[in-house]
Amino acid sequence: MKIMRVDGLTSFHEEIEGVVTEASHAPSIHDTQPWHWLVADRRLELFADPSRLLGAVDPDGRQLLISCGAALYYARIALRLRGFVPDVVVLPGGPGYGGLDRDLAGKEPLATIRINEARPPDAWERSLGTAVHLGHAGHAGRGPIQPTPDPTGVLAALQDAAATEDAWLATLDDTGTDDHLATNAPSARPGQVDGQDSIVVLGTAADRPIDRMAAGQALARVLLSATALSVAACPIGHAEDIDAIRVVLREILHSTGTVQMVIRLGLPAAGGVPAEPAPRRPLSEVLTISD
Ligand SMILES: Cc1cc2nc3c(=O)[nH]c(=O)nc-3n(C[C@H](O)[C@H](O)[C@H](O)COP(=O)(O)O)c2cc1C
């Protein structure tokens, strides 16, 4: 990592180091943290790190891109916490660019964030920022949870969080009229199965790289929102390692979209102790400062 010691820029770089450290708290497939950040001038760029691809379970990098999208959302919140207004362009090279086909040198970023404006964060952004700082959104749900149909009534808020990032969040008995559902779909699950409603499904309209990046940002927004609302949540990527399972889930939901992630939701069980966060890669491995 190269740090140029120039007044003004130095303190900006220090802020960015804090942002990238917090972005690294994002969940990633098998904790691979498959991202790399480049900072130049007042611009932060996110790249995929193809060397972190898990070819056996994620051959086309779908979950790698979801992980990078999650890191992008964490970076957006970390920037807002510091009063920066991130101006984000996702996949500036086009919606179909997956980020995996070239060496890091000279390749297209997954996202470019320009940081020119300033505005103090609002109360909700500060709550999400606290969840980022806690560094445990997404793993609290791996501990013991109490299955509840709609934990503390937050489902609508989490659905809004997903929709704001161009994704949808559905329960397994969702028969609503959301865009992703086929019209006149019959009830997917007439009978209640105890505990099943603590599983929600995150999806997107299609499955291009841009949709996968949206799924990652939506996943992060849902996990951080859940944490801010005292609900435990955990992504279950294993459930979709096999494409056939995603197809079955899509059929259960009568969805016209693409299933991207299953998420477990619930109230933390009384007396349950959440697992410690996994260690993150050192900053020197995930950030290059170039000026
Ligand atoms: C695409 C994706 C798939 C994931 N799949 C699983 C999973 O199947 N099971 C699980 O417990 N966590 C899953 N996670 C969460 C990661 O395992 C977790 O973020 C990572 O191991 C770091 O752990 P920590 O956030 O608790 O520190 C997934 C996260 C992402 C972004």
Task: Report the span from N to C terminus.
Answer: 11 Å
Distinct small molecules: flavin mononucleotide
Count of all domains:
2
CATH topology of the largest domain: NADH Oxidase
> Biggest sheet, in brief?
5 strands, mixed
Query: Which class of the largest domain in CATH terms?
Result: Alpha Beta
Question: With helices defined by DSSP (H or I, 4 residues minimum), what is the helix count?
Answer: 7
What is the correct CATH architecture of the largest domain? 3-Layer(aba) Sandwich
Principal-axis shape? globular
Please give the number of β-strands.
10
The helix content, as a percent range, equals 25-40%
Proportion of residues in β-strands: 15-25%
Task: Give the class from helix and strand content and strand pairing.
Answer: alpha+beta
Q: At the fourth CATH level, what is the homologous superfamily of the largest domain?
A: NADH Oxidase
Q: In terms of per-residue confidence, which ranges show pLDDT below 50 for 5 or more consecutive residues? A: 1-6, 182-197
Rg estimate, integer Å: 19 Å
The succession of helices and strands, N to C, reads HEEHEEHEHEEHEHEHE
> What is the residue-averaged pLDDT?
83
Biggest β-sheet: strands ordered side by side in the sheet: 3-4-2-1-10
Describe it for me?
- It is a single chain.
- With 291 residues, the chain is α+β, with helices and mostly antiparallel strands.
- 31% of the residues lie in helices and 20% in strands.
- It contains seven helices and ten strands.
- The strands form two sheets. A five-stranded mixed β-sheet has the order 3-4-2-1-10. Strands 5, 6, 7, 8 and 9 form a five-stranded antiparallel β-sheet that branches.
- The protein is globular.
- Mean pLDDT is 83; it is low at 1-6 and 182-197.
- The structure holds flavin mononucleotide (FMN).
- The site of flavin mononucleotide has 19 residues, from helix 2 and strand 8.
